[in-house]
C-alpha cells in the first residue's frame, strides 16, 4: 500500500509518467474498501467487549452478593442476588469431561485417517467426520435428550454402582439423567470433529521424509507416530485441543436441553443439576427482567473473555509454529 | 500392510523377528466375540460390564499378550495402538449414524404434504398436524440476509489479507479472524442485543437475527476465501499487471473469477454452518406461529427456533413436530453441504 501512494506522488510530480493518476484512484478506493472490511473484524471484536461491559455494569452494581462466589441466580429480586459460581463450575466440569473423551478419540481418528486408512477411504472418512460437525447443535440437543440420555443412563448407573466410592460418582438422589456427565458426553461428541479435523491437518503436514526415515530404521508404525509425528505436530495438537475446548465452553442449546433446571453446585456429576454459562443465558433469557438480562449479559461477558483467552492462546501457538516450521 | 505381512512371512526368521500369523487377528476377534456371546447368554459378567465391552477387552488383552509372548514388547505396543486407533474410528461413526438414523426415522413419520405447506396458526401444542412453512421461510430469509451481508464483507477482507495486506495490520486482522471463529454463538446474540436492540437501533426481528448470524459467518467466509485466493497462481496476476491492468481490475477480473468456484463453496459451507444456529436467534427474535416475511418488523420463526419452541412445549405431538423439523433442517444443511463439497471437488484448480 505504501508503494501505491509513493507512485501516486511520483506521477503527480511527473505528469508525463507512464502511469496516469485516474487508475491509481480506482486502486486506492478498492484498497480502502477491502481494508475497511478487514478493520471491521477488529472493530466488531472490540465492540463485542465494549457493549457487553457497558450493559453488564448496571447488574453488577445492583448485585448485593459476590458475583464470583454466589451460588444462586435471583437478579430480578430486590435486593438482587446472583453469582456465577454454579455456571463456572458446570461449564468447567462439562468441558473437562468433553475434553477427556474427545481429545484422545479425536487424535485417534486423525491418526487413522492420516496413517492407517487407505488414502481414498481416509478422504471419505474425513468427509464423514466433517458431516458430524455440520449437524446443528439443536439436533444434538434433541437427540441427546430423547435418545442418547436414556441409552447412556445405564452407564451412569454403572459408574455409581462400581465406582461410587469415588465421591464424584456417588449418587444420593438415585436419579441419573440430566446430569453434568450427560451434558459432557454430548459435548464430547460435538467437539470431536473440531479436534480431529484440525489435528488431521497437522498430521498430514509432517514431512514425508521424517516418516519414511523412521520406518526405514525399523520402527513399528506406532513408534513412527510417537517419534516422528508427535514431536513435529505437538503445537498443532495442543491448539486443536484448545479450539475444541473453546467450542465446548460456548456450546449453548444442546447443554440447555440436557441439563435440568436445578441451579446448584453439585460435585456428584451423575446427579441432575448444574448449569453452564451459555445454557443459562438461553434458559433464563425469556423470563428475565431488566436487571436479569443485564446479569445474563455479565455472565456472557465472562464466557466471552474465557473463550477469547482460550482461542487466542490456541491461535498464538499455531502462529508461532508457522514461523519456524520448515515443513512447507 | 497385507503385502508387507506376506513378505515377512516368506523371510520369517531371517530379516524380521518372529511375527504372529495373519490368522491370529480374526481368530482372536472370533474368540472375543464368543466370550461376549457367553456373557450375553449366561448373564455372568465382571463388575457389571456389558457383553460388548467384555469382548473388546478380551480382544485387546488377548492380542497384547500373544503378541508380547511371540513378537516382543515393541510389536505388542504397536498392535495395541493399532487396535485402539481403529476403535476410535468406530466410536466416531456410531453417534453420527445414530443421530442420522434417529432423525430420519422419527422425522419421516411426521413428513407429509401439510407439514411443508402449513404453519402453526390455530394449531395448539397438543394437536397433531401443523407445519413448518413459516419457519422454513424464516430460515431462508434470515440466512439469506446474513449471506448477503457476510459474503461481500468476508470476500473484501480476504482480498485485503491476500492482495494488499502486510505488516502489523495484516497480522492482527488475520489473528482476530481466527479468534472470531471461536466466538460462542450465544455471545454473538448478546452482542446484537446489547449493541442494536438495547440502544433502540433495531427491534427484536428477523433482521437482528440475521445480523447475529453475520458475526458467526464473516470469519468463516474470510478464512475460506483467503485459502482460495491464495491458490490463484501468481503468474496470472503478474501477467495482467505487466499488461498495465490496474490492480483492482486484476483482482475483480482475474483473481476472483479464477477462484470463483472455491469462493462459492466456502460461502455455502458458511451458510450450512449458520443455518442450524439457534442460540443467537433466541435472543434477537420473538417466535411467531405464522408466516411473517417482513424481517424488520414483528416476530419471525426459523427452523432451529421452531424446534426449540416445540421441544419446550413438551407434548407428544409437538415433540413429533420437532423431529420433523429437525429432519427438514438436517436435509437443508446437508444438501447445501454436499453440494458445496461436490462443487469444490469438481472445480478446484488442480495446481497447488
Automatic annotation (TrEMBL), chain A:
It is a multi-pass membrane protein. One of its GO terms (cellular component) is plasma membrane. Keywords: Cell membrane, Membrane, Phosphate transport, Transmembrane, Transmembrane helix, Transport. GO terms for molecular function: phosphate transmembrane transporter activity. Its main location: membrane. Residues 88-314 form the ABC transmembrane type-1 domain. It is found in: Cell membrane. InterPro entries: MetI-like, MetI-like_sf, Phosphate_PstC, Phosphate_Transport_Permease. The keyword Transmembrane applies. One of its GO terms (biological process) is phosphate ion transport. Belongs to the binding-protein-dependent transport system permease family. CysTW subfamily. This is Unannotated protein. It comes from freshwater metagenome.
From TrEMBL, chain B:
PROSITE patterns: ABC_TM1. Residues 136-344 form the ABC transmembrane type-1 domain. It is found in: Cell membrane. Pfam families: BPD_transp_1. CDD domains: TM_PBP2 (cd06261). GO terms for molecular function: phosphate transmembrane transporter activity. GO terms for biological process: phosphate ion transmembrane transport. The chain crosses the membrane at residues 27-47, 53-72, 84-105, 143-162, 171-196, 202-222, 250-272, 322-344. SUPFAM superfamilies: MetI-like. One of its GO terms (cellular component) is plasma membrane. The keyword Transmembrane helix applies. Its main location: membrane. It is a multi-pass membrane protein. Keywords: Cell membrane, Membrane, Phosphate transport, Transmembrane, Transmembrane helix, Transport. Belongs to the binding-protein-dependent transport system permease family. CysTW subfamily. This is Unannotated protein.
Amino acid at each position: 500500500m505504501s508503494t501505491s501512494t509513493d507512485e501516486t506522488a511520483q506521477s503527480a510530480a511527473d505528469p508525463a509518467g507512464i502511469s496516469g493518476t485516474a487508475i491509481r484512484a480506482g486502486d486506492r478506493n478498492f484498497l480502502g474498501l477491502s481494508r475497511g472490511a478487514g478493520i471491521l473484524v477488529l472493530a466488531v471484536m472490540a465492540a463485542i467487549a465494549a457493549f457487553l461491559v457497558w450493559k453488564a455494569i448496571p447488574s453488577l452494581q445492583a448485585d448485593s452478593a459476590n458475583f464470583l462466589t454466589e451460588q444462586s441466580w435471583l437478579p430480578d429480586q430486590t435486593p438482587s442476588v446472583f453469582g456465577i459460581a454454579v455456571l463456572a463450575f458446570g461449564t468447567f466440569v462439562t468441558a473437562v469431561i468433553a475434553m477427556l473423551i474427545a481429545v484422545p478419540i479425536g487424535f485417534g481418528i486423525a491418526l487413522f485417517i492420516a496413517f492407517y486408512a487407505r488414502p481414498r477411504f481416509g478422504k471419505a472418512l474425513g468427509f464423514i467426520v466433517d458431516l458430524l460437525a455440520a449437524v446443528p447443535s439443536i439436533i444434538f440437543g434433541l437427540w441427546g435428550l430423547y435418545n442418547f440420555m436414556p441409552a447412556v443412563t445405564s452407564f451412569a448407573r454403572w459408574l455409581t454402582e462400581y465406582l461410587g466410592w469415588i465421591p464424584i460418582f456417588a449418587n444420593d438422589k438415585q436419579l441419573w439423567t440430566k446430569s453434568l456427565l450427560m451434558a459432557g458426553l454430548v459435548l464430547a461428541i460435538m467437539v470431536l470433529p473440531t479436534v480431529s479435523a484440525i489435528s488431521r491437518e497437522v498430521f498430514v503436514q509432517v514431512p514425508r521424509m521424517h516418516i519414511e526415515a523412521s520406518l526405514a530404521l525399523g520402527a513399528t508404525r506406532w513408534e513412527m507416530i510417537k517419534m516422528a509425528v508427535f514431536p513435529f505436530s505437538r503445537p498443532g495438537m495442543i491448539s486443536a485441543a484448545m479450539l475444541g475446548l473453546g467450542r465446548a465452553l460456548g456450546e449453548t442449546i444442546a447443554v440447555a436441553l440436557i441439563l435440568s433446571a436445578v441451579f446448584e453446585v453439585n460435585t456428584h456429576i451423575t446427579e441432575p443439576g448444574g448449569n453452564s454459562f451459555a445454557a443459562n443465558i438461553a434458559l433464563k433469557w425469556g423470563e428475565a427482567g431488566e436487571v436479569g438480562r443485564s446479569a445474563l449479559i455479565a455472565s456472557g461477558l465472562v464466557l466471552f473473555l474465557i473463550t477469547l483467552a482460550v482461542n487466542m492462546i490456541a491461535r498464538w501457538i499455531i502462529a508461532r509454529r508457522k514461523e519456524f516450521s520448515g515443513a512447507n | 500392510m497385507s503385502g508387507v505381512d506376506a513378505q515377512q512371512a516368506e523371510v520369517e526368521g531371517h530379516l524380521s523377528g518372529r511375527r504372529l500369523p495373519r490368522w491370529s487377528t480374526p481368530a482372536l476377534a472370533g474368540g472375543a466375540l464368543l466370550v461376549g456371546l457367553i456373557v450375553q447368554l449366561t448373564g455372568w459378567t465382571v463388575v457389571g460390564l456389558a457383553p460388548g465391552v467384555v469382548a473388546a477387552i478380551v480382544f485387546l488383552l488377548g492380542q497384547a499378550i500373544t503378541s508380547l509372548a511371540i513378537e516382543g514388547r515393541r510389536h505388542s505396543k504397536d498392535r495395541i495402538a493399532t487396535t485402539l486407533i481403529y476403535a476410535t474410528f468406530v466410536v466416531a461413526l456410531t453417534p453420527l449414524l445414530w443421530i442420522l438414523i434417529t432423525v430420519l426415522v422419527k422425522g419421516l413419520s411426521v413428513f407429509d404434504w401439510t407439514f411443508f405447506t402449513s404453519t402453526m396458526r390455530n394449531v395448539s401444542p397438543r394437536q397433531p398436524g401443523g407445519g413448518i412453512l413459516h419457519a422454513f421461510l424464516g430460515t431462508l430469509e434470515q440466512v439469506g440476509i446474513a449471506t448477503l451481508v457476510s459474503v461481500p464483507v468476508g470476500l473484501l477482507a480476504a482480498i485485503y489479507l491476500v492482495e494488499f495486506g502486510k505488516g502489523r495490520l495484516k497480522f492482527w486482522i488475520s489473528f482476530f479472524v481466527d479468534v472470531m471463529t471461536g466466538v460462542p454463538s450465544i455471545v454473538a446474540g448478546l452482542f446484537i442485543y446489547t449493541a442494536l436492540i438495547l440502544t433502540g437501533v433495531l427491534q427484536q426481528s428477523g433482521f437482528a437475527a440475521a445480523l447475529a448470524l453475520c458475526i458467526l459467518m464473516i470469519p468463516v467466509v474470510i478464512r475460506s476465501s483467503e485459502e482460495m485466493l491464495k491458490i490463484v497462481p501468481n503468474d496470472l496476476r503478474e501477467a495482467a499487471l505487466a499488461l498495465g491492468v490496474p490492480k483492482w481490475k486484476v483482482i475483480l477480473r482475474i483473481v476472483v473469477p479464477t477462484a470463483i468456484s472455491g469462493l462459492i463453496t466456502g460461502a455455502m459451507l458458511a451458510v450450512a454452518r449458520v443455518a442450524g444456529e439457534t442460540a443467537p436467534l433466541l435472543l434477537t427474535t420473538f417466535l411467531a406461529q405464522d408466516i411473517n416475511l417482513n424481517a424488520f418488523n414483528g416476530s419471525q420463526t426459523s427452523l432451529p427456533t421452531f424446534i426449540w419452541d416445540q421441544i419446550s412445549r413438551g407434548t407428544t405431538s409437538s415433540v413429533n413436530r420437532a423431529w420433523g423439523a429437525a429432519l427438514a433442517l438436517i436435509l437443508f444443511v446437508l444438501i447445501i453441504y454436499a453440494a458445496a463439497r461436490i462443487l469444490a471437488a469438481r472445480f478446484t484448480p488442480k495446481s497447488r
